[in-house]
Specification:
It is built from 3 helices and 2 strands; from the N terminus they run E-H-E-H-H. The protein is of the alpha+beta class. Helix 1 links the parallel strand 1 and strand 2. It is flat, with a radius of gyration of 12 Å. The chain starts with a strand and ends with a helix.
């Protein structure tokens, strides 16, 4: 199943290193990181949507 693990560069609650490790542990998973804090969809809504939309289009989900 196509999997996208998405995190931010400055998340104080979820360490980006943990998200990278999660993506590495899931075969074929993609990891993306957006410059923002913890509330990614509010801080960077356009970049969040662009990242998710591109992933979904690539995998036709």
């Amino acid at each position: 199943m196509p999997t996208l693990v998405l995190n931010t560069t400055a998340d104080l609650l979820i360490d980006p290193a943990n998200s990278r490790a999660l993506a590495a542990a899931i075969p074929g998973a993609e990891y993306a990181e957006i410059e923002a804090g913890h509330v990614l969809m509010i801080e960077q809504p356009e970049q969040w949507w662009k990242t998710v939309d591109e992933f979904l289009r690539r995998h036709r989900l």
